[in-house]
Amino acid sequence: MDTVTRRVGRKRGVGHNGNMIHQLPSTQDAWITSFDGTLRSLCTHATAAPPVWVEDVSRVQHATDAPFDAQETRLSATERAESGALMRINHVGEVCAQALYNAQALGARIWCRNEQLARHFEAAGREEGLHLAWTKQRLNDLGDRPSVLNPFWYAGAFAIGLLASRLGEATSLGFVVETERQVEAHLAGHLDRLPVNDTASRAVVAQMKADEARHANDAQKAGAAELPRAVKLVMKAAAKVMTTVAHKI
């Protein structure tokens, strides 16, 4: 990562290579922004999701070339229950993604002092926000509910994101790469398990999978470090606990 990237944000202006340099917010402002993100992730009512869903449904449809079937008329009770459980898991994953990117943006500002990196995390978080809305809408359509443990999942993921950012920019980006790769594999498994007739959920998961792969590649290009194998195994174990619990509650 070059000098301009490392030092970006220290004052407003244009760097010697023509890149815009953004002004870093104060530590207090960074925490306030992060807290606002937390409230938006956990307290936004379901009515906030449909406009995003409607706006982006054509993009989701295009991912699989499948017809959009929001009425669920072709699903049996068993299929509907399985789809609901899988989409609840995916919704929890997106809650965690909001927490991770929020925490890593905060860490980029208060520890790395890198506003460009913080904005990188925020941009990815905004796209994950679409995933959060899509999965919540699918739960509504399927007559199911989010996990009652979402505040717990968010708090845990936020703490992990802060820890990753405290270990430095390369490690923080490396954590993104490994997280997104594991999520991509997890979503591929869901495509195998979702009912064939649930074209809407399958379209959502396919688009999410493509987006997660791109996020991993973007983080890799930004200078991610390879995480130790032991860390990757711990991450997989933690994800297994989350998915097992979220499938039920």
Number of helices: 9
Q: Which consecutive residue ranges, at least 5 long each, have pLDDT under 50? A: 1-18, 46-55, 63-70
- Count of extended strands: 2
CATH architecture: Up-down Bundle
Quote the beta fraction.
under 5%
Strand order of the largest sheet: 1-2
What's the SSE pattern?
HEEHHHHHHHH
The CATH topology:
Ferritin
**In terms of structural class, how would the helical and strand content be classed?**
mainly alpha
CATH class: Mainly Alpha
Q: Which key phrases capture this entry?
A:
249 residues; mainly alpha; Ferritin; two-stranded antiparallel sheet; 9 helices; 74% helix; globular; disordered N terminus
Compact summary:
The protein is an all-alpha fold.
What does this structure look like?
- The chain is 74% helix and 2% strand.
- It has 249 residues and is mostly helical.
- It has a single domain (26-248), classed as Ferritin, CATH 1.20.1260.
- Strands 1-2 form a two-stranded antiparallel sheet.
- The longest helix is centred in the middle third of the chain and has 34 residues, at 77-110.
